[in-house]
Amino acid sequence: MYNARICRFFNCALIATMTLAVVPVSFALTLQDVQRIQNAKAGERHMEFQNAQQRESAERAQQFAEQNRQFQERTRQEQKSFEEWQRRQAQEREEDLRRLRETMAEKRVPKEPACKARDEERSEQLHGEGEQAIPDLTCDEHRAEASH
Questions:
Q1: How far apart are CA 137 and CA 118, in angstroms?
Q2: Which residues of 95-113 are buried (b: 16+ CB within 10 A; e: fewer)?
Q3: CA torsion through residues 32, 35, 40, 41, sign
Q4: 3-state secondary structure at position 133
Q5: Mind listing the pLDDT tens digit for each residue in 19-71?
Q6: Radius of gyration from C-alpha coordinates of the chain
Q7: Smallest Cα–Cα separation from 109: which of 83, 144, 74?
Q8: pLDDT 10s digits, 120-147
Q9: Residue 136's closest CA among 113, 117, 119?
């Protein structure tokens, strides 16, 4: 029994000594562990911050690309619209010129043989056979003769 008590005492003393010896080492490791954990957390936060910045940058780039695409599409549509307007304007000008030419052709005085024939016809209608016709001053030749 005595031996058992001595053993228990030594066991308790040994355990107490070991515990006291391990506690400071264990505490020092804990401070280093805390610093490592804090550094790791700070590193994680920094990585999260960088990732968030990269995501925001990617989102802004995507938004810019979408806005640029929309702008280019609007520009293409406006260019098509402008080209269509120009084409319509050219067609309208051609149509106006065609109508003007037709109108001028209708009003144009015939060349000399037809002009003389018309003068004779008018003379017969106005004065009868053998009298001279009143010259048609819309004819270039008659205008030239009348000015002399």
A1: 12
A2: eeeeeeeeeeeeeebeeee
A3: positive
A4: coil
A5: 655 555 555 667 888 888 899 999 999 999 999 999 999 999 999 999 999 99
A6: 57
A7: 144
A8: 776 666 655 555 545 555 555 555 665 5
A9: 119
